[in-house]
Amino acid sequence: MPFTPPRIAPPTRALSVFETLRAARRNVLEIIPGLSYVQPMVSGRLGSRWHMVQDPGALRRIFLDNVGNYPKSGIMLRMLRPAVGDSLFTSEGDSWRRQRRTVAPVFAQRNVTALAPMMTATAERTAERLARSGGQPEIVGEMLSATFDVICDVALSGREHFDVELYGRAIIRYMETVGRASVLDFLHVPNWMPRPGAVLGKGSVRTMHAMVSRAIEERRRALAGAAGAGRAKGAAGAADDLLDHMLKAEDAETGRRMTPEELLHNMQFFIVAGHETTALALSWSLLLLAGDPEAQEHGRAEARAALGDAPAGAEHIALTPYVGQVIEEAMRLYPPVGLLARNVRRADVLAGRRIMPNDTLFLPIFALHRHRMWWDDPDAFDPENFAPGKAAQRDRYVYLPFGAGPRVCVGANFAMMQAHIILATLLARFRFAPGDGPPPVPTMSMTVRPEGGVRLKVTPLQGDFKRA
Ligand code: HEM
Fold first, then answer.
1. What tens digit of pLDDT does each residue of 274-290 get?
2. What is the extent of the structural domain holding 55?
3. pLDDT tens for residues 138-183?
4. Domain of 433: which CATH number?
5. Which letter, b or e, does each residue of 207-221 get, where b requires 16 or more Cβ atoms within 10 Å of its Cβ?
6. pTM of the model
7. pLDDT given at position 86
8. Which of 390, 344, 342, 338 is nearest to 368 (CA)?
9. Strand partners of residue 350
């Protein structure tokens, strides 16, 4: 009997403008209509015309074939720009092309693999923390700590120049203020009108920027010093890491390096966006495995056979394919980025429907991944959906946790490696069972989170798991 984890009941009738606004503030997933799970495209009007697109052919046109016609929506950009300016994620046109050419090589598989030892060290620390936690730790908090640890190490020279607590509080404050879709955005009030959230969030942005700038400056000085002394090491003594690569990265076409402002904004984006999404993929993976002891045993047997008592490293990834399948399946059921939005420049036809300039497109990844037409038993947890060869039988555009086309997530390799290393290590050392109380439902403001967090019973397994 397959395990069916928590889901939300989508609205079965059209919502009024105010119901939509209320739902969007409470839980963005609640604005996705029930029809989006059974039909290729759903359209409506809210100020301007909108369309929810779940058709793989139409998604391919938006992400790839006619990508220039579909710039990112102003709503998303407004939430992010105060913190990350015109970074890779938030830029368009020439500025985006230049930054993409500069940043993509930084995340090449070779460079990401070189960061694996830092991920392994974090997996070890996370396991030690869980072993001490006793009872029923809150898993989202634990995973946020773990992925923040990794990003601090690879992007900020570790924690020694950086007040992690202060930065963590600033992120939360930012998400609660600027990061919430403003009612004014949905009503198409002009951009120059100040949003209450944006005003409240200014202090947190200043705090984050000051801290990241300081870390970059420290590293710049350390690199200059190391070059003088004939070494090329990071300030914390780490080998080439993300920050080193970003400082040295240049656009292969023009040889141009990033300006200090571009560097600050991109590093800031990597920190905020990169760690939360990955922590959620991990938290949902553990919640799903806790509800499906058979799948958990399968993953554990594989991890134990590959790792023995050692924590996982890059070399164990190919040896633990089922662990990867669990993460993929967790991101199918709970894609950390559950909804994307795009504007329309020129008239076009999508899934046989005419769309017009200034219409808004919503791409509900959450509904796409549970769509009745593209998936068998779509609400059930089944890592076999990602068994070798299975993806090849599917349309590429029915599974889009990292987006697609030229704007596909540049950090996907990094995120998958980090999640895999941490999950394999934890599975080999602990048994996870559902905590007391009902399982959390998914809720989305910027990302798809388990409402109220995840409490699991975590039992250390017998054996000596000292660092190998
Ligand atoms: C499980 C973890 C992650 C998920 C689910 C995720 C998801 C996504 C998605 C869906 C997009 C495309 C957005 C769009 O088309 O509008 C994206 C873009 C992006 N992601 Fe990720 N991401 C993850 C981790 C990371 C990490 C770890 C980093 C960096 C350290 C990162 C950096 C970026 C950047 C810079 C872009 C913009 C790329 C461009 O526009 O050229 N992401 N991500």
1. 889 999 999 999 999 99
2. 17-152+262-460
3. 999 999 999 998 988 888 766 666 777 788 778 777 776 655 554 4
4. 1.10.630.10
5. bbbebbbebbebbee
6. 0.92
7. 85
8. 338
9. 353
Angle 113-117-122 from CA coordinates, rounded to 5°: 120
How far, in Å, CA of 356 to CA of 460, rounded? 57
Query: What is the model's pLDDT at position 417?
Result: 97
Whether 277 is in the pocket of ligand 1, judged by its Cβ within 6 Å, is: yes
Residue nearest to ligand 1 atom 7, measured at CA:
402
Token pair belonging to 417: 């490696």
- Whether 249 maps to a domain, the answer reads no
Q: What CA–CA distance (Å, rounded) separates 252 from 8?
A: 46
- Determine the distance separating the centroid of ligand 1 and the alpha carbon of 410, expressed in angstroms: 6
Kindly state the tokens that stand for 281. 């993929």
Domain membership of residue 142 (yes or no) is yes
pLDDT at 202: 67
How many folded domains does the chain comprise?
A: 1
Between the CA of 335 and the centroid of ligand 1 the distance, in Å, is: 12
Residue 339: partners with Cβ closer than 8 Å, 6 or more residues away: 28, 29, 32, 362, 363, 364, 365, 366, 444
Nearest CA to ligand 1 atom 35: 89
Burial of 1 (0-12, 13-18, 19+ CB in 10 A): exposed
